[in-house]
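Annual report, structural modelling task.

Input specification for the aspartic acid complex:
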Amino acid sequence: MSAQQTFLRDAMRRLNMTRDSFAERIGVRRRALDTWLLPEDSSEYRTMPSIVEKFVGEILGREAPSGESTQSAHKSLAERIGVSGKPHLLSVDQFSRDSLEDLFHVADIMQPIARRQKISRVLEGAVLGNLFFEASTRTRVSFGAAFCRLGGSVCDTTGFTFSSMAKGESIYDTSRVMSGYVDALVVRHPEQGSVAEFARATNIPVINGGDGPGEHPSQAILDLYTIGREFSRLGKLVDGAHVAMVGDLRYGRTVHSLIKLLALYRGLKFTLIAPPSLEMPAYILDQVSQHGHVIEQSHSLADLKGADVVYATRIQKERFADEAIEGYTPDFQINEALIDKYCDSRTIIMHPLPRDSRPGANDLSTDLNNDPRLAIFRQTDNGIPVRMAIFAILMGVDKQVQHSMRDAAWRAPSHIGPDDASFDGLD
Ligand code: ASP
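The model returned the following structure:
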């Protein structure tokens, strides 16, 4: 994303305006604004006139002087979101709406690196330790790739079998030992609360890559970042949105983090659709309802009618004994027929992935793969700029990234996936 796109997205976020209302506010046609927001390599991309930039700057100065309160204005973003004064990312509870949107701004700055147009070496010399004691493809590789794309390098260990935990080593000892080897840790572990225990044993940044059925904060941040970008294109705001969450809401840590993060916004309606034994835990519902949102619980997919976001999840079979799940029948599947029946062309369909594509799994169907409403791969692509932003913030280089960028020397494909062209130009 060029500085122009980053500037405009930040302005709309800070003013909390849709593209339509922002275009009207600055006196330009919506179509012109859209062309300024397209990727620079798009044939329809246009440069915004400097007079418009100046005008937007004036509006921001008057109406949105700073996203921060005066009390926190002198603090770094890492200090604002930190845990007991340390730069960890353990839970979405660490965020306010302002600090979250400041993180999104850093992620926007990372987009040209994620899109392979630019490179940066702000983390040159730093080493990341990826400690994954549970299965992972996306989280482990995207955290690793994000660290490498900022110039750092990565050491990985996967599973208990080949780690000293198999010899009875404690979390404290493992964490303290690793801190002597690496500069940041990403940890995934099957027990809720375990990653916080890693964090207590070290002063280097620790990021929760999933702690059992607890939380998955980086996933929720990239999910909300994706919702924001999709909504910007569709002319919607997160405030007042209708979000349907579907599937295993009991053990699915991504929805636990996401619903709490969405609760930072105003006036949402949540429709939580799960089989009877897999409903959202009460402690999370209590926390979300304190913010005054509407929460409806259901066992029927018909209730996702009119949702702006349909967020599907996998049944977390690894977290409970393999018994039949009441109500989880072939009807309980998000597919094209269902979405066409209950939703319109402006609904987006998301999933943290992996989706279980084996016969009988009833997970998100592949028949939506060519449908532009399916945002799952834009969602995974957004994992890179968001995770780069998390590292840059926690390691104190977020302000240096913009000026550190150089052109990439190699040529990347214009569309990363074979189905991406159907979404071309809608950015
Ligand atoms: N990848 C996500 C997680 O680790 C979702 C899932 O596994 O279903 O929580």
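Residues 210, 216, 253-254, 314, 352 surround aspartic acid (CB under 6 Å).
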